[in-house]
Amino acid sequence: MLAGLMQDRPLLLPTVIEHAAAWHGDVGIVSREADGGTRRVSYAEAATRARRLASALARLGIRAGDRVGALGWSRHRYVELFYGVGGLGAVLHTANPRLFAAQIADTVNHAGDRLLFVDPDCLEIAEAIRDRLTGVERYVLLTDRAGLPPTHLPDVICYEDLLAGGDADYAWPALDERSAASLCYTSGTTGPPKGVLYSHRASILQAMAVCGGDGFGIGGGDTILPVAPLFHCNGWSSPFTAPMTGAGLVLPGRAVDAASLCALIAAERVTLSFGVPTVWLDLLAHLDRTGGRLDSLRRVGCGGSAPPRALIERLARDHGVELVHAWGMTETTAACTFGRPDADETGAAAVAARISQGRAVFGCAFRVTDDAGRPLPRDGRSVGHIGVRGPWITAGYYRDDSGPAVDADGYLATGDVGTIDARGRMRITDRAKDVIKSGGEWISSIALENLAAGVAGVAEAAVVGVPHPKWQERPLLLLVPAAGAAVDPDAVRRHLAARVAKWWLPDDILVVDDLPRTATGKVLKTALRARYRDRFDAAGGRD
Ligand code: ADP
User: Fold this and answer.
1) Residues with beta carbon inside 6 Å of ligand 1?
2) Higher pLDDT, 183 or 454
3) Domain region containing 468
4) Pick from 165, 166, 143, 168: which is nearest to 156 by CA?
5) Number of domains observed in the structure of the chain
6) At residue 95, what are phi and psi to the nearest 5 degrees?
C-alpha cells in the first residue's frame, strides 16, 4: 500500500465545539430554563464550560469508558454534557424522562451509570427511582446555587459549583475516534428499550452528512430549534450540526406545546426546526386558531413517522414552510434518508417525493429483501424488509446477547417494511410489527392512515390490525377529530372505498378523543392493539 500523506486527525466531538468557539464564537445557544428564564451561552463560553466539566469529572474519578447518565430536557447544560462527558472519553447516557419510572431505572442500571445529571424539573423522577438504582454514586443537579431545590437525594453536587472547580484550559485527551461518546435507548414502540452506543466518529460523520443540501441543508444563516428532545437520538444531532456550521441553537426546555414553540420561533427568529409530525400538526392547528404567522421559519425537518400529505401541502401553501422529510431510527444515529423532489418533479410529483422516505445521503445504503433475505427489485411495488448499513448505523446493541444485529452483508434489520422505486426512493409501508396480515396478504396501516387523515375534519388517524377469527387480522381505524370539527365515519369509509381495494377497508371506524403515545410522541400501537384486541372476536367480528 502506498499510504496517503494526509494528516491523521481523529473525528472527536470536542473538535466540533472548539471549531464553533474559534470561528463562530459569538453565535451560540439560547435556552429556556427550568425557572422560566432564557439563558444565552455563546459557543466560546460553551466550549470553556465543556472543558471545565470534563476536568471536574476526571477529578471526581470518572474514567474513559465510564457511563454517566442525564435526566433532563433540552437546555444549554445538556449540550455541554455531550461535549464534556464524551470529550473526556466517558459515555453520556441520555436517559428518557418520558418513560415510566421503572423503565428509566432499568435503563440507568443497564447502562451502569456511575453519576446522574438531573434537571431540577426531573428531580421528582430521580427521587422516585433512587432506591432502585444500583450503580449511581453521585447526583449532579443541572442548576446554579440559587436554583438548587431541596432534595433528599444523597451526595448532591450543584452543576455550576462543579464547573467552577474545573479547569478552563483542560486539554482534551487524544481518544480513538471509534470510542463511545453517547448511549441512547430505543423508545420502546415495538419492544423493551435497547441500548445504542454512538461513537465520536459516527456522530460527526452523520452530522456532516445531514448538513448537506441533500439532507437538511444546514448553514451559518440558520437558527435551529430541535423540538425532538436531546435525549432521543441526540436531538437529531442538533448539538453537533449547529456548532459545526455556525448556526444558532435554540433549546425549548420542557415547554414544547404549540403556543410556546410559536412564541420561541418568533422571538429567536428560528429558520429551521425538527420534530415528529404531531408537533407540526399541533402547530398548524394553533396557527389556525390564533391567526399567527411564522415569518422567520423556512423549513421544518419532519421524521419519526410519516407526515400526512395535507401537512406538507398546508405548511407550504399557508406558511411558505418547506417540510423536509427524513427517516431514521435510534439505531441509525439519526436521519439517513431524505424525501426531496428532483428538479423535474413539480406539483403533485414534488409532494409525492416529499411523502416518500427518500434516498440515502452519502454514507448510508439501504435495500429491501424478501422473507428469505433475497434482495427485491427497485420497482416501487415489491414490498419487503428494509435493511440499512453505513458508518453511523449500529452493528449491535449494548450489553445484549441476542446475537448479531446485522446480516451477512452488513445490513441492519430495521423492522420497517417497504419498497424502493426506480429513482431509488424508499417508501415505508409499515413497521414489521404494525403491518396488518389479513388472509395471507399485507395491508399497509400507513397508507390507510394517510388517506383517512386527508378527509376534512380529521386531525389524526391510526390503523391497527385486530385479531379476526376468519382473516387472522382485520384493520380497525381510529379517528381523532380536529378541534371543533365533527367527523362522520361513513364519509371516511366512502373516501377510502374510492381509493383502496375493497379488502383493505377497515372493518370498523371509531372516533376517539386522542391516541396513546410513546415517550417520543409516536402513536403507541401496542396499546391500541391491546385495547381493541377482542373487537372482532368470533361473536362480534364481521367477515
Ligand atoms: P422506536 O423504535 O422506539 O419507535 P425510534 O425513534 O428508533 O424509536 O423509531 C424508529 C422507527 O420510527 C423507524 O424504524 C420507523 O418505523 C419509524 N420512522 C422513523 N422515521 C420515519 C419516517 N420518516 N416515516 C415513517 N416511519 C418512520
Assistant:
1) 186-190, 303-306, 325, 327-330, 357, 414-416, 428, 431, 520, 522
2) 183
3) 434-531
4) 143
5) 2
6) -65, 150
